[in-house]
């Protein structure tokens, strides 16, 4: 039997287009499940009001800046980052032959659908945790401080990884993105594209930078003199983890469609 070739570092054109289109259209819809309780868009906002009442949160609250950013992110997180991580000395996925790959196309499609729906559920969970001071589970009352929220979100992420993937490469990619994803927002926050509301802004990643030196000069040039005051929300880290697994599952399915040709 013929073994399928190793995937190239850059995605084939159709795979990239499908990933980008999914990020462009589906990404903002999923992101809108929690962003109303986290941040406010100041540049090119999009608001789709609810038909029920003006007092009800909008059905969609985003920005025209978000779709192209998520289109790019889905290509990088779903395809390019996993290919880079494959260069690390970690266990690799088994290479499938053509017959096995054809049999798995249906499973890849189902996993992609499960990935999107589970990511939406995890992002909705972040909204629930963010908007409740306490949550009661039977006789147990959980105080929703930042630590508890992160623990519950990490548990949800771990369950998603076990169900969808279980590969070391995916775990590494999603973990790296969980830390790096929020930091990638700093240029947009400093430029005024969006800002985290006070109730959610609990993470100042640049506050520990000591005065003086080349690092401070570089950060001041990039983000302004008040770069230490730039605030993010810690709960977005686990959301980035889920989005990465989501994008990877979609990339596997879209790449399988290339093999049909």
Report the uncertain regions. Answer: none
Largest sheet: 2 strands, antiparallel
* Number of beta strands: 6
Mean of residue pLDDT values: 87
In what range is the share of β-strand residues? 5-15%
The helix content is 55-70%
Distance between the ends: 18 Å
In which order are the strands of the major sheet placed? 1-6
User: What would you call the structural class?
Assistant: mainly alpha
Helical segment tally?
8
H and E order: HEEEHHEEHHHEHH
Query: Could you say which overall geometry the principal axes of the C-alpha atoms support?
Result: globular
Task: Characterise the protein shown here.
- The chain is mainly alpha-helical and 261 residues long.
- The protein contains 8 helices and 6 strands, in the order H-E-E-E-H-H-E-E-H-H-H-E-H-H.
- The protein has a two-stranded antiparallel ribbon. It has a two-stranded antiparallel sheet with strand order 2-3. A two-stranded antiparallel sheet has the order 4-5.
- Strand 4 (134-137) and strand 5 (140-143) form a beta hairpin.
- The longest helix has 33 residues, at 98-130.
- The radius of gyration is 20 Å and the shape is globular.
- The model has no long low-confidence stretch (mean pLDDT 87).
Layout: helices, strands, pairs:
Elements: H1 13-31, E1 39-41, E2 45-48, E3 60-63, H2 66-85, H3 98-130, E4 134-137, E5 140-143, H4 146-164, H5 168-184, H6 186-190, E6 194-196, H7 213-223, H8 236-258
Antiparallel strand pairs: 1-6, 2-3, 4-5
Please tag this protein with its features.
single chain; 6 strands; two-stranded antiparallel ribbon; mainly alpha; 261 residues
